Amino acid sequence: MAANPIEQFEIKNLIPLGNIGGQEIAFTNSALFMVGAVALITLGFTAATAGRSLVPGRAQAAAEVLYEFVAGTLRQSAGEKGMKFFPFVFSLFMFVLTCNLLGMIPGFFTVTSHVIVTFSLAILVIGTVIVYGFVKHGAHFLRLFVPSGVPGWLLPFMVVIELISFLSRPISLSLRLFANMLAGHVALKVFAGFIVGLGGLAASGGMTGVFGVAGAALPLAMAVALTAFEFLVAFLQAYVFTILTCIYLHDALHPGH
Amino acid sequence: MAQPITAHAEVPGIEGEGANFPPFDVNTFGSQLLWLAITFAVLYLLMSRVIVPRLSGILEDRRSRIAGDLRIAAESKARAEEAGEAYEKALAEARGRAQALAQETRDKLAAETAEKRAALEAELARNLADAEARITAGKDKAMGNVEAIASDAATAIVERLTGQAPAGDAVSTAVGKAMAQ
């Protein structure tokens, strides 16, 4: 095997900044790509919308498509009231999408392949739901865990189930994104490793060389197909993260079932 | 877990330690959380302050512009329809007036013609009457002359037959008697 498929997820300290409470704090490669993603998003949108033209150019049309796409998703899932969360949801979507897509460039670090990042984002979403739910509805927000139209003897079980399902949301939300990005990149790296390994065999010539060429072509085709698939996954997971956020926000807005 | 304590020693060692799975390496969580918080906060601020208001402004401008244009178009159409109706009405009125005028003219001309004809007929009748009167007068005059001629002729005949001239009165009386029969 040419390279360890896990190596790409390694956090490297670029600029050490000291440590707080025993935790090493540094400007890492992960931080570099977070900053890069934010810079890319903000500069991209600012440049695309600088013209504020009535008839949009290519860049502005793309920015508008992204805006309308997320706005439509939010409006559909959380209703017109949910639009107050639009900047938050749009930031989430653009951040996750950009980090996912940046990770697709060979040699680039994938921020969203670290569970702490996706879990933090998920906690941010659930925290927003809980805080907004209690601020807006007070104790009425707890109605979220009491489904209506359930016979009395079944209610305690239902409340427990609802509570568990609510608490598992940040976990499923973060693990889905993290696992997809991690697994995709590992699979790509493994197949790429096969190409190199079997390609080396091809260079040795003779019968083994013929076998090596055929053997290297197969994982190459696989890697090409996987790359296309990973682009789809990168977009799809950003979308899934966003739409689930919208659905959870709907609960914060309308806690009654 | 003694990992947090050995954090400093671990960091350079991670590269060599292949078994350590980077996403679960607690030592890196601090930096990642810090930078995620900073970058996402900056992104959220820029999104909510600059990018989203600008984008929604652009879309709102376009929506209101299109709605305004559609409204103006509808107004123009209504105005055009109104003008068309007014034109039709004016046309119908003009046609009615023209017909009335033609009828009036026709009536007037007919009346004038009738009047002229009546006048002409009256004149002709008068001329006819005059002529008849003249003829009657002529006839009467001629008849008066006939009496005198008859008297003369009767006197001449009587004179030739009897050789003596009768009395003028007797002759004219006799002629008058004969003519009255």
Automatic annotation (TrEMBL), chain A:
Provide the alphabetized UniProt keywords.
ATP synthesis, Cell membrane, CF(0), Hydrogen ion transport, Ion transport, Membrane, Transmembrane, Transmembrane helix, Transport
| Transmembrane helix in keyword set | yes
A GO cellular-component term linked to this record = plasma membrane
Which Gene3D superfamilies does the entry mention? ATP synthase, F0 complex, subunit A
The keyword Cell membrane is annotated on this UniProt entry: yes
> Which CDD domains does the record cross-reference, listed alphabetically?
ATP-synt_Fo_a_6
This protein's name? ATP synthase subunit a
Gene expressing this chain: atpB
UniProtKB/TrEMBL annotation, chain B:
> Keyword Iron-sulfur: yes or no?
no
Which CDD domains does this chain map to? ATP-synt_Fo_b (cd06503)
Where does this protein have coiled-coil stretches? 73-104
Spell out where the chain crosses the membrane.
33-52
Mind listing the UniProt keywords for this protein, alphabetically?
ATP synthesis, Cell membrane, CF(0), Coiled coil, Hydrogen ion transport, Ion transport, Membrane, Transmembrane, Transmembrane helix, Transport
Subcellular location per the Swiss-Prot or TrEMBL entry: Cell inner membrane; Cell membrane
Question: What's the domain of life for this entry?
Answer: Bacteria
What's a GO cellular component annotated to this UniProt protein?
plasma membrane
Q: What is its main location?
A: membrane
> Sorted alphabetically, which InterPro entries does this protein's record hold?
ATP_synth_b/b'su_bac/chlpt (IPR002146), ATP_synthase_B_chain (IPR050059)
Similarity section: Belongs to the ATPase B chain family.
Q: What is the recorded function of this protein according to its Swiss-Prot or TrEMBL entry?
A: F(1)F(0) ATP synthase produces ATP from ADP in the presence of a proton or sodium gradient. F-type ATPases consist of two structural domains, F(1) containing the extramembraneous catalytic core and F(0) containing the membrane proton channel, linked together by a central stalk and a peripheral stalk. During catalysis, ATP synthesis in the catalytic domain of F(1) is coupled via a rotary mechanism of the central stalk subunits to proton translocation.
Q: Which HAMAP family match?
A: ATP_synth_b_bprime (MF_01398)
Protein name, please?
A: ATP synthase subunit b
The organism of origin for this protein: Chelatococcus caeni
